[in-house]
Design a protein that fits this description.
Blueprint: H1 2-11, H2 13-67, E1 79-80, E2 83-84, H3 85-112, H4 130-153, H5 162-167
Antiparallel strand pairs: 1-2
Length: about 180
């Protein structure tokens, strides 16, 4: 009987068209249904991943809380955000007084230090001014370069007029 049906279907083009349309429709609906299921699973997997992340974050924070040193609370102290305020104020006062003492000691040391320029220090050294130090370094480099040039040529004289150097057979090209 199945052979007969297949012969009938193959012979009837209209019925064959209906069967292929029905098959295409079922395939299309199956694909649509599968895509919907895939989207649901993707959403579920994202939700599971997010919950795992939050859970691990929570566990990490709890482990950090357990490993943190305990906060000290003294009797009679008002506690704000886990820190005893009176004790914190005492610590702040101690740090401020220590810093003030250090600043005063530094000022006293600077006042009692003799002036470096009166001791014969190089006047070209000035701390805090990079321009002056660069200028002095540049001047030293120019001086050593001109001395080495004069030593090599043996005739060029620094500070001499060009006419005097022409006498020695050297000229300078100033045409630019």
């Amino acid at each position: 009987m199945t052979c007969l049906r297949s012969r009938d279907a193959s012979q009837d083009p209209e019925q064959q068209k209906r069967l292929t349309d029905e098959r295409r429709r079922r395939i299309f609906l199956r694909k649509v249904h599968q895509k919907g299921e895939d989207k649901k699973w993707d959403a579920r997997s994202q939700q599971i991943l997010w919950e795992d992340y939050i859970s691990s974050q929570r566990q990490w924070l709890e482990s950090q809380d357990r490993s943190a040193p305990p906060t000290l609370v003294y009797p009679g102290d008002e506690v704000m955000d886990g820190i005893a305020t009176e004790h914190a104020e005492e610590m702040i006062d101690q740090v401020l007084s220590q810093e003030n003492e250090e600043v005063e000691a530094l000022v006293a040391m600077l006042e009692h230090r003799p002036n470096e320029r009166t001791l014969g220090k190089d006047d070209s050294i000035s701390y805090g001014s990079d321009d002056d130090s660069f200028d002095s370094i540049f001047a030293e480099i120019l001086a050593t370069a001109s001395e080495s040039k004069a030593a090599q040529s043996g005739t060029w004289q620094m500070g001499a007029r060009p006419e005097e150097n022409k006498e020695h057979g050297e000229t300078m090209d100033t045409s630019g």
